[in-house]
Amino acid sequence: MSEPLDLSRVDEILDKYHGEQGALIPVLQGAQEAYGYLPEEVLRRISRGLKVPISRIYGVVTFYAQFYLTPRGRHVIKSCQGTACHVRGAKGVLESLTRELNVPPGGTTEDLQFSLETVACVGTCFLAPVIMIDGDYYGKLTPKRAVDALKKYSRTSEKEEA
Amino acid sequence: MKRLSSIEELRRVQETLSQGRDPDRLRVRVCMTGCRAFGAVEVRDAFKKAIEENGLDKKVDIVETGCHGFCARAPVAAIDPHGFFYQQISVKNVPEIVRQSLIEGRPVEKLLYKHPQTGQPVALEKEVPFYKEQTKIVLRNCGQIDPTRIEDYLVRDGYLAVAKVLSSMSPEEVIGEVVRSGLRGRGGAGFPAGNKWKFARNAPGDEKYIICNADEGDPGAFMDRAVLEGDPHTVLEGMLIAAYAIGARHGYVYVRAEYPIAVVHIKKAVADAKAMGLLGENILGTDFSFEVKIKEGAGAFVCGEETALIASIEGRRGMPRTRPPFPAVAGLWGKPTNINNVETFANIPPIIHRGAGWYAGLGTEKSKGTKIFALAGKINNTGLVEVPMGITLERIIFDIGGGIPGGKKFKAAQTGGPSGGCIPASLLNLPIDYDSLTAAGAIMGSGGLIITDENTCMVDLAKFFLTFTQSESCGRCVPCRLGTKRMLEILQRITEGKGELADLETLRELAPMIKDASLCGLGQTCPNPVLTTLNYFFDEYRAHIEEKRCPAGVCKALIRYQIDPETCTGCGVCRKACPQKAISGKAKEAHILDQALCIKCGICQAECKFDAVKIM
Fold it and tell me: N or C, which end of chain B is more exposed by having fewer CB within 10 Å?
């Protein structure tokens, strides 16, 4: 079912950083933005392009929270686990999202509609407890209101809009 | 934007801009950063529309500013020249503000902040208790200027400190001034900034680097984000002065990718400064050259540690290494490197501009100047406050922060994030400075100040921080990698009611080992939340262990929910909300919760409007 990857996009990114010291992380960031995640073929291309062993690239990719080796959902939910959110009930919010989506934190729903992630702090402590869905903030949540916030992004409501 | 070729030209541009600025001009300052989450974009658009409809577009400026600090009241806006402060504005309030304040020059009473004690409306921004008690040096421009317009910065003495340095000071004199100011690093450890610069200056090498650490990773701290978003040029100016002082030609801003607005604003600031000849080759026609690049972090808390941050810029796993050699001697690409954080750099222009003597007059003997705190948690006035060092915790929490919501009792203030500690109510009179905090077992850290109340479990809070440090531990050194794991397991047991008193001894034994033997600041400080809660809240640990009871009603294994038949109105909200269908009852009759089905998710309690769901 999967089409062959278009590697020209990663080549463009590699060209942009050609010869720059310390280019690996910006190249990976660019590639992830282009592909949504970091497929093995792309990583191999980066390895050849930057002359960095694939083992080292794998080490970097797995070290940082921002990089993904598997495809992510159409919508990314970031459930803030900062201190302010914690004391205001972030755990309950995360648990109710986990139940609703039936995936653990870090997981993606089978239909690739949602990825559920935790994040250390989004820096909007006045909204605690807060989640971000794509770029939008949903603050001062209760476990129920967090689940309500998902509705707008569900497959059915997207179909209705279309 | 014209490229400035001399210091005189910068001064002339500044004068022209200042003279052209009418202090009586009507301005609407709308926060367009943090307040966005509460609809600031719509509020701004409503102002635009109402101003046009009233034919005022030639007379009124809308200034899209950074954070005003009073995040609890978002979205906020202020009206100049009157200085009216409006809070929790909605789109439908805007026509009223335009009519009454912009046309008639008087405040809209119902939208003003109400004094929490007297209930009287407070019209002026400067009279609002939250602002009145603050001393804004670093945040002087935040909320005042449009951070995307370099002219706005220039008009408020922007880049004058660079002009002063380039025209009349040697690098040694600049360092001397920073040393005399007493400025200590605002990133957490509080190392004297001037001394750090001296080490980098004196280190041999023709290529040197400046790095601005904007990887604000402490959960609960957002001051660096606010400064980068609201006044990015002040950070660049601080970096320029540091570069001149240590002899660096290249600099990096390492910024968290989780801060998208900050990234956009600092990138714009770099581009604008470059176009005006304030960055790049031969700055202001002198032989001083300095370039700045932006590096976006990739999500790792430990990269706030300077050697880990350097590894990350170099494109490697962000793991710390042993020091010495310190980055001042061998940093980025092995060259002498000076790293300060955002708030430290933002202090530099005012120090140079107004003099070290002025700055050293603020604060305490060993902690000079001001500190920004991010107030959050169980506190009324969540937001950013800048106060002189030495102010007591009580004044921050009650006079500025407005106390604890819902009539609850203050329990503890958590400073310094995962590296810090919990300060109990008995120490409310503690002056807030580097040394007093350290003596209390906490640390200043980057300035996160999380307030907890009687419903916060201190054992759970300690577990929360250990969960964080354990997962962020990079794994390079054993004491941190395994020590955090063992401590976390013990805390886990205690919160599940399976702890023993001997566990507390083990915690006390492990903590100093991890502190002494870990490689970097993460491990060296991560036992602090456990130690301070053990010291100040020992009874809570005992209650979990001996009575299998969580006094704050937080630890799931030790609590159960129950519906109080006296208070329950039988409205049915909890019954419908319960994901387990564990609640039954007829309409208008007291409901019953089946303990066998309950998973203790707390939804019923959060949804109940009558406070009928109790924790037992």
Answer: C
* Minimal C-alpha gap between B9 and chain A (Å): 35
DSSP A3: P
| Cα–Cα distance, B60 to B354 (Å, whole number) | 32
Residues linked to residue A117 through DSSP beta bridges, in sequence order:
A78
Q: Does A86 touch chain B (CB under 8 A)?
A: yes
CA distances from A33 to A36, B287, B411, B489 (A): 5, 40, 44, 37
Neighbour order of strands in the sheet with B370-377: B383-388, B370-377, B448-453, B410-415, B421-424
- Pairwise CA distance, residues B296 & A36, whole Å: 17
- Segment B416-448, tens digit of pLDDT: 989 999 999 999 999 999 999 999 999 998 899
Name which of A29, A81, A126 is nearest B72 (Cβ-Cβ).
Answer: A126
3-state secondary structure of B527: coil
How many whole angstroms separate alpha carbon B527 and alpha carbon B529? Answer: 6
The pLDDT tens digits of the residues spanning B83-103 come to 999 999 999 999 999 999 999
Residue whose pair of structure tokens reads 């090498």 in the numeric block: B205
Tokens standing for residue B42? 């719509």
How many angstroms separate the CA atoms of B235 and B253, rounded?
10
Convert B320-376 into a string of H (helix), E (strand) and C (coil).
CCCCCCCCCCCCHHHCCEEEEEHHHHHHHHHHHHHCHHHHHCCECCCCECEEEEEEE
> Could A83 and B313 be called an inter-chain contact, meaning their C-beta atoms sit closer than 8 Å?
no
DSSP string, B372-409: EEEEEES-SS-EEEEEETT-BHHIIIIIIT---GGGPP
* Residues linked to residue A75 through DSSP beta bridges, in sequence order: A114
ipTM of predicted assembly, 2 dp = 0.91
Mean pLDDT per block of 10 residues along chain B (616 residues) reads 92 93 94 90 97 95 96 95 96 96 95 89 94 96 97 96 97 98 92 97 97 91 94 98 98 92 97 97 97 94 95 96 95 97 98 97 96 95 96 96 94 93 96 94 90 96 96 95 97 97 97 96 96 97 97 96 95 93 94 95 93 93
CA distance B363 to B80: 31
B127-184 pLDDT tens trace: 999 999 999 999 999 999 999 999 999 999 999 999 999 999 999 999 999 999 999 9
- Cβ-contact A21, B314 below 8 angstroms: yes
Sign of the alpha-carbon dihedral angle for A30, A34, A39, A42: negative
Q: Any idea which residue has 């870090």 for tokens?
A: A106
Residue type, A87: V
Residues near A3 by beta carbon (within 8 Å), at least 6 away in sequence: none
Q: What is the DSSP string of B23-91?
A: TT-EEEEEE-SGGGGGTHHHHHHHHHHHHHHTT-TTTEEEEEES--S-GGG-S-EEEETTTEEE-S--G
Q: Encoding tokens for residue B517?
A: 């033997």
Residues for chain A: how many in total? 162
Chain B contact present for A106, CB below 8 A: no
Give the H or E element holding residue B79: strand B77-80
Coil, helix or strand at residue B483? helix
**Using an 8 Å Cβ cutoff, are A50 and A24 in contact?**
yes
| Cβ pair B315:A65 closer than 8 A | no
- Structure tokens of B129? 């208790």
Q: Is A60 on the interface with B (CB under 8 A)?
A: yes
Q: Do B298 and A29 touch (CB under 8 A)?
A: yes
Answer yes or no: do B603 and A144 touch at CB < 8 A: yes
Give B561-609 pLDDT, tens digit per residue: 999 999 999 999 999 999 999 999 999 999 999 999 999 999 999 999 9
8 Å CB contact of B579 and A87: no
Map tokens 């001397």 to a residue. Answer: B176
DSSP string of A23-79? -HHHHHHHHHHHHSS--HHHHHHHHHHHT--HHHHHHHHHHSTT--SS---SEEEEE
Cα(B313)–Cα(B301) distance, rounded to whole angstroms? 14
